[in-house]
Specification:
This protein has seven helices and three strands; from the N terminus they run H-E-E-E-H-H-H-H-H-H. By secondary structure, the chain is mainly α. A hairpin with a 5-residue loop joins strand 2 and strand 3. One of its GO terms (cellular component) is cytoplasm.
Length: 177
């Protein structure tokens, strides 16, 4: 987990157009936690905290939400990423997460508001290993998550080093006489 999250933070730097000058490390433990030692202040601990700092450093605060409600929703989804998605959930837990997200995304394009936010970017990266492992028929069970995921991975810079995931199944039909 530690290496994946550290790679994800480096990818986020790249997405935001920041030079790769930050040094990320991880606190050891049952679930390693990312750490950023800043040049002009104390170290920052935690994925959501560091990611929010990088967004502000890049002067792209719109990714944190446009209104107070949207900013709160972004923070909510960042917490969801850390508490529900991370930590390699069991198959049963992963199924629960995908069901929750599919229900939530039923009438939404993005997680928080009407445009892409940091919540979408971090949720995309956190869900990528789960989505890669799903066969096509299971991706179809979570149609709203699949739609959202496919949409988010098309944004320039979001996918980074991760392979694109295909969601459509092409069927070959035999032609009749």
């Amino acid at each position: 987990m530690a290496v994946a999250v550290l790679t994800e933070l480096s990818a986020l730097e790249n997405t935001l157009g920041l030079p790769r000058s930050n040094k990320f490390s991880a606190l050891a433990g049952e679930r390693p936690v990312p750490v950023l030692q800043t040049n002009d202040g104390p170290r920052l601990v935690g994925l959501a905290t560091i990611a929010s700092h990088l967004v502000k450093q890049a002067r792209k605060e719109q990714l944190l939400g446009a209104s107070s409600e949207e900013r709160a929703a972004v923070q909510q989804w960042l917490e969801y990423r850390v508490t529900r998605i991370d930590g390699r959930p069991s198959r049963e837990e992963a199924d629960g997460v995908l069901r929750e997200l599919s229900a939530y995304l039923q009438d939404r394009v993005y997680l928080a508001g009407n445009r892409l936010t940091l919540a979408d970017i971090l949720a995309y990266h956190g869900l990528h290993p789960l989505m890669v492992a799903l066969p096509v028929h299971e991706k179809e069970r979570y149609v709203n998550v699949s739609r959202w995921f496919s949409h988010v991975q098309q944004y320039p810079g979001v996918k980074q080093h991760l392979p694109a995931i295909v969601f459509l199944k092409n069927r070959l039909y035999a032609r009749g006489p």
